[in-house]
Amino acid sequence: MKVIHIPCLEDNYAYLVIDEKTKQGLVVDPVEPEKVISAAKEHGVDLKLVLTTHHHWDHAGGNEKIKELVPGIKVYGGSIDNVKGCTNKVENGDKLSLGDGISILSLHTPCHTKGHISYYLTGEEGEDPAVFTGDTLFVAGCGKFFEGTAEQMYQSLCVTLASLPKPTQVYCGHEYTVKNLQFAQTVEPDNAKISQKLSWAQQQRQSGLPTIPSTIETELEINPFMRADLPEVQEKVGCKSPVEALREIRQRKDNWKG
């Protein structure tokens, strides 16, 4: 399983995922379809599927166009998310496949939108799995609670995604890492792993390189939202439960001027 970053708009990523045996490909959130098709041609890939994480235009806005450009392509999206151009609706636990070697599991991760889906991909034995988290989980952050509650985000981040294997590669929808880590330092100023990751992320961006993917293991070390169930993090934000802490951290981030 090979994953290609495709920078879109100001700070979005679409991702081209290739089954290297069959040269079949899928794309996650192809908001700029021409860029995606160009990348597919460059790698000699036959595009079969679109995986849409949620209905916001900067993720689903290219679906209709890609259907015109690639006749017969299937467009998957959450069953309750009203995804533009969707041809196949998915629910939590639905399974898909690409080529010979890639299995896809749909995970309902609501809060940013009601029907947000993250896609968990496994390839050949020995390859690290990958999860495409859209705007639910970012490197060191999470999406705004536009359509859901802190309880839902806790379930999505700290139960559903946190239970994936630790080496799982995390591919999110936006390049927000530097700002997220700067904010994370305000929550846990003594967390050395956050400081180390921030230095690395700043170097990556100065070199014009992405800070993505992360891993589930890394997120559990640096992401204040995924660490909300730790007593020491709750104490730092003056809360007594994980959900309360998650809500408080999100409110602080929404008001942070960093």
Automatic annotation (TrEMBL):
Reported cofactor(s): Fe(3+); Zn(2+); Fe(2+)
Domain Metallo-beta-lactamase stretches: 11-174
Keywords: Hydrolase, Metal-binding, Zinc
Enzyme Commission number(s) from the entry: 3.1.2.6
Single GO biological process annotation from the record: methylglyoxal catabolic process to D-lactate via S-lactoyl-glutathione
Origin: domain of life: Eukaryota
SMART domains, per the entry: Lactamase_B (SM00849)
Catalytic activity: an S-(2-hydroxyacyl)glutathione + H2O = a 2-hydroxy carboxylate + glutathione + H(+)
GO MF, one example: hydroxyacylglutathione hydrolase activity
Cited PANTHER family: BETA LACTAMASE DOMAIN, TENZING NORGAY, ISOFORM C
Family the UniProt entry places it in: Belongs to the metallo-beta-lactamase superfamily. Glyoxalase II family.
Record's protein name: hydroxyacylglutathione hydrolase
Origin species: Artemisia annua (Sweet wormwood)
Organism classification: Eukaryota, Viridiplantae, Streptophyta, Embryophyta, Tracheophyta
